[in-house]
Design goal:
Helix content: 25-40%
Number of strands: 8
CATH superfamily: START domain
Shape: globular
Structural class: alpha+beta
Low-confidence stretches: none
CATH class: Alpha Beta
Distance between the termini: 41 Å
CATH architecture: 2-Layer Sandwich
Strand content: 25-35%
Largest sheet: 6 strands, antiparallel
């Protein structure tokens, strides 16, 4: 039985700015992964990364796009068992924008420190709670 990791973050910017940050490759390189080389918010699109020498090479594919609301992609690593899905959902109260991230199937990854749930939790806090917040609110 899956125990998804769910986190929510609030930004003091309009929803379209958050959506742009989630779907623009140039912006994603600033807050998500600087190694990103190719991305389009299109179902089935395979992310491209500059990580040929990385120990944990990412294999990600866009799994869902609902314009202005939801972006989802798989999260897997070449040569390792397991696959997760990342779901970004954005909503607004017309004053702030809330981003909810859900990461499923973490238990499908190998029992190894690199794949521990706590590592992903800290990662999302850094990526969304720090990097994305700074990109959106300080620019």
């Amino acid at each position: 039985m899956s125990n998804p990791l769910v986190k929510e973050f609030t930004y003091n910017v309009p929803i379209d700015e958050v959506w742009q940050a989630l779907t623009s490759m140039d912006k994603m390189k600033k807050w998500y992964f600087p190694q990103l080389r190719g991305f389009e918010p299109v179902m089935g699109f395979k992310f491209e990364f500059d990580d040929d020498d990385a120990g944990y090479q990412k294999e990600w594919v866009v799994t869902k796009v609902v314009e202005g609301k939801t972006l989802a992609h798989s999260w897997a690593y070449k040569g390792y068992s397991g696959s997760s899905e990342i779901i970004f959902d954005v909503t607004t109260d017309n004053i702030t924008t809330r981003l909810k991230i859900t990461q499923t199937d973490l238990e499908s990854f190998p029992n190894h420190p690199y794949f521990r749930r706590e590592r992903f939790e800290l990662g999302w806090d850094n990526l969304l709670g720090k990097n994305l917040k700074q990109l959106l609110e300080l620019n």
